[in-house]
Specification:
Ankyrin repeat protein, Ankyrin_rpt, Ankyrin_rpt-contain_sf, repeat, disordered C terminus
């Protein structure tokens, strides 16, 4: 490489982030590593190279701790270089999503991600270096671990060693300005993330199946889903067995128009009359809306309203025919 000035070398840094050999040459020529925006440092090898050339991470390095939550060596390097693990990156989620202005997530995201990996050893190590479990959503994020044995091992560690609150609410630490589908208690998160092993373990440890967070969504309603996310029927029976209100759950199942969910709720004692009342109210409301539909939009809306009518009538017919003959101890639940 021909001789270049330090300023020229620095100007070329941003164009060389995907080629570490060229980047090293520029740094050898005196380019200032600190000209690179920390948000652009997305790989382990790049970060280690920059640290070798005096990259200053002390002030803002906390913003990328979560990006290296699976790499103890890198985390220790960052912490050894002065990164404050107690500082919080509030402008994005533990999943790396940027939040709207004014939204915030004040949880310790590096602990959230480590919990999602169910890495007990690394979790303990980060706590020993100053991370605060009580300011994390670790219990919630454990449900993201899809290895049941590891997730179930993580739960008692968080509950017994760190005395985390089994009914903690996500909204105590964050505000997204919308109803996030994983919001609520750890049990709500476990249902949303479809982690049946964690659902069952939390219930064994005393999680209240009728406890909801600030959003007001119960674990049973999470199990039935809504317009934004798919439900998780296998979680419904364990929730009802643990004492969730079957009539409250039935009302939600009727609103969702899902016969399979309604059947399960009835099998655990849901009041069929309460369900029928909701079903009739839904059909009456649909009928009124259709009757008052402006002519210029009726043609476009007709398929949707007809589909609603068919679902409502199917639910009413099912509830009217209910004889209470569902044996939830032996029957195979709908999948």
């Amino acid at each position: 490489m021909a001789h270049i000035e330090k300023s020229e070398a620095s100007a070329l840094l941003d164009h060389s982030l995907d080629n570490l050999d060229i980047l090293r040459c520029l740094l050898d020529y005196g380019a200032d590593a600190n000209e690179i925006d920390l948000r652009d440092v997305q790989s382990r090898d790049l970060l280690i190279l920059l640290l070798e050339f005096g990259y200053d991470v002390a002030k803002t390095g906390h913003t990328i701790l979560q990006d290296f939550a699976g790499d103890r060596q890198v985390l220790d390097l960052l912490l050894d270089r002065g990164v404050d693990i107690k500082k919080i990156e509030t402008g994005r989620t533990a999943d790396g999503l940027a939040l709207y202005p004014g939204g915030y997530d004040n949880s310790v995201k590096v602990l959230n991600v480590v919990a999602a990996n169910a890495d007990i050893e690394l979790f303990d190590h980060l706590v020993s270096r100053g991370a605060e479990p009580s300011k994390s959503l670790a219990l919630h994020y454990t449900s993201k671990c899809k290895v049941p044995e590891r997730a179930v091992a993580m739960l008692p560690h968080l509950l017994d060693v760190y005395e985390m609150d089994i009914h903690a609410d996500t909204d105590d630490l964050r505000n997204f300005f919308h109803d996030s589908p994983d919001s609520g208690t750890p049990l709500c998160s476990a249902v949303y993330y479809k982690n049946l092993a964690v659902v069952e373990e939390l219930l064994k440890r005393g999680a209240d199946p009728d406890r909801c967070g600030a959003t007001g969504h119960l674990p049973t309603s999470k199990a039935m889903g809504d317009a934004l996310f798919e439900g998780f029927l296998p979680a419904l029976a364990p929730l009802l067995e643990a004492g969730a209100d079957p009539t409250l759950a039935l009302r939600h199942a009727v609103r969702r128009g899902n016969v399979d969910y309604a059947k399960t709720c009835l099998g655990y004692g849901g009041d069929v009359k309460a369900g029928l009342q909701i079903a009739h109210e839904r059909e009456a409301r649909r009928s009124r809306e259709w009757a008052n539909m402006p002519a210029d939009v009726a043609d476009d809306e007709a398929p949707r309203y007809e589909a609603q009518r068919e679902r409502n009538i199917a639910m009413i017919d099912f509830l009217k025919s209910w004889k209470g003959d569902f044996d939830h101890d032996h029957a195979e639940l709908p999948k």
